[in-house]
Amino acid sequence: MEELTFQEWDTFIKSHPEAHILQTPAWGALKAKFGWKPRFFREGSLGAAILFRHLPLGKSIAYIPRGPVGQGDWEPLWHAFDSICREEKAVFLRVEPDVWEPAQSDFIEQNMPGFIQTEQTIQPPRTILVDLRGSEDEILAEMKSKTRYNIRLAERKDVKIVFSDDVASFYQMMLTTGERDEFGIHSLAYYQQVYDLLAPGDNCALLMATYQGQPLAGMMVCAQANTSWYFYGASTNQERNRMPTYLLQWEAMRWAKQKGCSVYDLWGVPDYPESELEESFLDRSDGLWGVYRFKRGFGGQIKRTIGTWDRIYQPLIYRLYQLWSQKRVQQAGH
After folding, report:
1. What is the CATH number of domain 126-303?
2. pLDDT in tens, 6-52
3. Residue 259 pLDDT
4. Domains of the chain: which residue ranges?
5. Which of 292-296, 299-303, 328-332 has the lowest mean pLDDT?
6. pLDDT per residue over 181-207, tens digit each?
7. Nearest Cα to 223, choosing from 5, 17, 10, 4?
8. Strand order of the sheet with strand 2-4?
9. Measured at the alpha carbon of residue 103, what is the angle toward residues 97 and 105, in degrees to the nearest 5?
């Protein structure tokens, strides 16, 4: 097992275009500014960025988001990581692989021995992927008719999409959206760091929808190799009848397509089977249900990863951590 520097890990990631943006050194640098300690390791053709976060009493948790990276048998990787995690006094190692269901029937048995599955996800396991490989007309044709109508309506109502570096204005919209739709948001410093770390490499763009120079909505879209992700979006309470968020999303897809991306990940819908999503989305607005109602209009395919898996090193403290995490989720829901 070889530990790599940021620069060496960047070289490794560039040789693996399938790697998720959450495994890039830029993302590790972002998390390092907000309480995490990134370390990068390679074992043959496989590798992973591991994030460590300190807990009280000198303990920590270890987390691999959307990894490992590369092709091969994962089992030797875990044995090597065991000693690293114990060195960091990790209570457990949490892994959210970048692997879609349905995985091969023996995938878990072969690649995740010694892990247990947990419902305490960090990244949303279910999402919608839009195929960008067709022409713009073909991509639009796959959308719901109401979504196409709203995109054209925004154009007719003089909504303009501009690229911006005004993260502070975007943050003000995030505050409005979080209050209106009742969800938590990051700090201004966090969004600023996302932009500052990813935009110089053309891996992030901040798009604003405006009307007569007034910002109505904004979004940050990120890209890595052939995939683009819609991570953060916000809107004001003004001129919503002009449907700015629809045109904004379409222009972000066009940006991703022009960069050579073939997949646009709408990043996060309620974690229910598609049949239940379609049956209930008109009646529910809690959690991500309102988000699903918006996102489903852009077409695409609902996909789910194989979820979240924990490798436990200190069982008693792990159980206490699970109880504490559950309590936090319950409190956040009230």
Report:
1. 3.40.630.30
2. 999 999 999 999 999 999 999 999 999 999 999 999 998 999 999 99
3. 95
4. 2-122+305-332, 126-303
5. 328-332
6. 778 899 999 999 999 999 998 899 999
7. 17
8. 2-4, 36-43, 46-54, 60-65, 90-96, 308-312, 116-118
9. 125
E-strand ranges in the chain read: 2-4, 36-43, 46-54, 60-65, 90-96, 116-118, 126-131, 160-164, 204-211, 214-224, 227-235, 263-265, 301-304, 308-312
Q: Average per-residue pLDDT in the chain?
A: 94
Cα torsion 16, 22, 28, 33 to 10°: value is: 160
Work out the pLDDT band at 329, boundaries 50, 70, 90: low
85, two tokens:
């995690």
Task: Please state which CATH number belongs to domain 2-122+305-332.
Answer: 3.40.630.30
In CATH terms, are 2-122+305-332 and 126-303 the same topology?
yes
pLDDT at 137: 98
Buried b vs exposed e over 313-332: b needs ≥16 C-beta within 10 Å?
A: beeebbeebbeeeeeeeeee
